Amino acid sequence: MANIKFHLVTPNDNQTIELIANWYLNEWHLPIDKTILRLQTITADPSQFQVLMTLDNVPVSTGGIYSHVGLLDREPKFKVFKNWLALVYTTPDKRQQGYGAAICNYIQDYSKHIGLDKIHLFTDTAERLYKRLGWDEIERLNLGERHIVVMKKDLLNDEKNGYQA
After folding, report:
1. N or C: which end of the chain has fewer CB within 10 A?
2. pLDDT tens readout for residues 67-98
């Protein structure tokens, strides 16, 4: 059986931050230098966090809770929502095997553990995953060629509570 572990990324965890920055560059063309700076800032802020998931000590997935996501720059009306699940990434060789759901569940549980009552996200690729995880649709919108759904998760009414430190 595979050994899955979750690690909260710290601002000084340079090797992990660089790995995540490379993943984000390859997947979404996000500049490495900006991603490194953003991750160092996020991981130093107790209201935000980034998680790395390993499988048998090999990094396979990441994601986090951010106070600001790019959608807010394009659609300011969503600034009323705080705590965004964002940049969930799983290595291509581990996709469609439940690891994305595993890291999302961990992030949800950890969010509840630190006192968050609601978290939000937007996606144009993984709506089915998030619906399966109990997320509710808030609104749909088109941003250029992207068909976005904005979703929320009420952590206070979440039946599942599997967070473990």
Report:
1. N
2. 999 999 999 999 999 999 999 999 999 999 99
